[in-house]
Amino acid sequence: MARMKFLCDADRCIECNACVTACKNEHEVPWGINRRRVVTINDGKPGERSISMACMHCTDAPCAAVCPVNCFYTTADAVVLHSKDLCIGCGYCFYACPFGAPQYPKVGNFGSRGKMDKCTYCAGGPEADGSKEEYEKYGANRLAEGKLPLCAEMCSTKSLLAGDGEIIAQIYKERVMKRGYGSGAWGWKTAYRETIES
Amino acid sequence: MASFGRFIRLALGAWALLVLVTVAPASAQQVNPTASAVKEQQLLQELNRVQGRVSIPDQRSGVLEQPQGREWRDFRNVTLPWIGGIAILGMIAGIVIFYLTVGMVRLEAGRSGRTIVRFNAFERFVHWLTATCFIVLAISGLNITFGRPLLLPLMGLEAFSEWSQWGKYAHNYLSFPFTLGVVLIFLMWIGGNIPNKVDVEWAKRGGGMIGHDHPPAYRFNGGQKMIYWIVVIGGGLVAASGYALMFPFYGTGIQGMQMAQIVHSIVAVLFVAAMIGHIYIGTIGMEGAFEAMGSGEVDVNWAREHHSLWLDEQKARTGPNDGQPQPATAAAE
């Protein structure tokens, strides 16, 4: 089985937000929640870079480690998923996450944040693959259909890469070699404790 | 000569042009667009977070990366269970040893059969309001820290999740009456809980816990004053930090909430340990003590042994004829 990862080539990202839109539409993500977003650093200044970020599906995921009810699980593809039936909406994953991935439908309401929602790597949840229940809670399960996450598939500049970590790292390395520069795989060191030498 | 000079200038100009045309594109290719680009590791080292601008309405999602959740995770999964375990189990072990070796603090003079009002109905209501809320809050709070390793394997994922869900609701909603109770306790008993010289003497004699010593005390002795300030300060801290967690992003970011959780949980486990001690001394630890918060009236002999100065005050207030002739006023010493 592959070890699925995301990689955003910041030197290619043009902040078009197609990944954000694709994700919201594909999964009918609730109002107010963005499973993916594009952050622009040094906006308008020389050296500005945009990075598309969602759940990185960390190795030894902090969210899973701190969850008081153990609602997270890791699939054979190393995708970090959770059960909304078990989630109690305590907010602990959201304190532990380095990437701001976990979100709650009712963040402002005391006592009732609601069930946590985050990027599923287009891999649904614990319900039967492709079932109506799975779609309602977690969105589409593209991985079960043999497809990769839609955000990366839709990326207009092929900045956002999704797939087996080794393969996307190889693609990125080749790009860096060919063009002679690269600002690195953002978030990889934090998420996977490794980075791509370039 | 003039034509030769013109030829040289022309030749030089042509050569310069050639150089420009051939070299310039080559040098343009060597421009590194990342030379001035932001670097992830550099940003993380400088600020310990990476933050930028987002075009979606949720501006909080502008924080791209904040790895300090790792330290918080370590606190939550390793440090806190150790602090809590040592504090709570240590307190229970201490009580068990004390109870087995010294035993219940008895009423030395026995019961006189006459009682004196110690806490009125309102005081008892506030105490029990706070106490019942505290017990539910403590159990549901400890469940968040210790439930996953201890209870989940016994209950299974679904049942444990259901129980924790109700625990969370109870924890959040009972925080309001609990906070009210702490505020009322603070206002209601502040008068008798300012530390004074009597407490120094009381502390020097170990509160009279061992042997047959009965250091004098007003309405609240040194130990009770300690409990009072633990409730007021500890309760204030857990309430403030708890509300910061209950209302996310009202004045705090993720880092602020991590800090709030650290304060909340450390104060809470120490608070629980202190309250276990308080419950012990108020029930099986001391004969005649529970009545103070039960019926509100204590035996006069209990008052004489444990709160002699308070009893004197009360007698002075109600008049000497109200009480039976006391065998020995010197019992206070």
UniProtKB/TrEMBL annotation, chain A:
UniProt keyword annotations, A-Z: 4Fe-4S, Iron, Iron-sulfur, Metal-binding
Domain of life assignment: Bacteria
InterPro entries cross-referenced by the UniProt entry: 4Fe4S_Fe-S-bd (IPR017896), 4Fe4S_Fe_S_CS (IPR017900), ET_IronSulfur_Cluster-Binding (IPR050954)
PROSITE patterns noted in UniProt: 4FE4S_FER_1, 4FE4S_FER_2
GO molecular function: 4 iron, 4 sulfur cluster binding; metal ion binding
A Pfam family this chain is assigned to: Fer4_6
Domain 4Fe-4S ferredoxin-type: 4-34, 78-107
Keyword Signal included in the entry's annotation: no
PANTHER family for this protein: PROTEIN NRFC, PROTEIN NRFC HOMOLOG
Name this protein carries in UniProt: Formate dehydrogenase beta subunit
